[in-house]
Amino acid sequence: MSFETNEDFLNARLHGMRSTLMEGDHLIRCVDDPEDYVRETLSPAGLFPRDLSRLLIQKIFQERDMRIFQKIHKYLSPEDRIVVEIFYEERFLENLRIIFKFWHRQSRENIADLLTAIPGKDLPDVERLFSADSISEFARFIGDDTYTDLFLLASRHYKSGGDTFRFETYLENLHFRHFYEILQNRLRSHFSLMDKIYNTRLDIINLMTCLRLREYYRMPWSDTRDMFYRHSGAISEAFLERVYPLESRAEYIRALPDPYSQILRSQSDVDLMDLEIALNRHFYRIVSKGFYTTTHCLGKILCYIFLKNFETQNLISIIEGKRLKTDRTEIVKCLIVPLDDRNIR
Question: What are phi and psi of 257, to 5 degrees?
C-alpha cells in the first residue's frame, strides 16, 4: 500500500506553524526584550547568547529547525520528501564549509561542536578532513561522492593561503545547480511559484556577487563569468556581461531592470550589506505572499523553509546586536522583514 502526502492536513499544520514564526511586530518586540524567547530556544545548551559564539548560536537554531522539518518530513510521501531533504543538503554543505574554512586557515578549534546534526547523514570526519594536504585530498576525504565531485569541480578556483570567496561562490553555484535540477523535476506541477522564488533568489545572489567582485576584487569579466548562476531570471549572464564594466555603482543600479533598480535607487552610496538587506526584504515579501496564495502543500513547505531561514537569520542579528551593544535603530535596520518608520523608531 503506497503512502501519499495528506495535503489538507499538512496545509493546516503549516498555517499553524507559520503563526508561531517571529515576524513583523513580534520580531521588533524581540529586539526590545529578547531574553525570554531566546533563553527558551537556547536552553538545551544551558547558556545565554552572550556566552556563545555566532556559529554555535547558528547551530542551535538550525538543529531546532531540523526537528521542525523532521515533523513535516514524516507526513510526506517518499517522492515528495525531496522538498525537505534539499534543506538538509544545504545544512550539510554548511557543515563542510565550516570545516573547510578552519582547514584553510589551519585553525584547530572545537569544530565538531559547531556542526549541525543532519537526519539520515553522518557528521563529516573532521580529523580525517584536517589531515588533507591539498584541496583535492580534502574533497576525496569527504566520503560522499556527490560532495567530493562538487569540491573537485570548484577546486580550480582555490588558492592555498589566499582568499576563498571565488572558491566558495563557485561551490555554492554548483551545489544549487545539482539539487535545483532534482527539485525542479519533482515539482513541475508547482513550477510557476517555484520558478518565481528561485529566479528571484538567483537574481539577488548574482547582483550581490557582481557588486562584490567589482568593488572588492576588481576582477575582469573573463575571470568571473563562471561565478554566476545561469538561469531564466532578469539578471542573466548576458545582462551581467553588459553591466559588469560600468564604472560606478550608481550606473550599475540604474541599468538594473525593475524591481531591482527601484529597490536600490536610493542605495547607491551605502554599504553592500545594506543593499543585500533591501534585496532580501523583497525576496521575503515574495515567499511570504507565496505561502498564502499557493494551494499546494509542497509549494507552501518551500516558502515556509525560506521564512524559517529568515527567522533564524533575524534572531542571530538581534543576539549579535545586543552582544555588541548596537543601537536599537541599527539592529532593526538589519532585519529581513518589511519595515516602516513606526518599526524603526
Answer: -75, 160
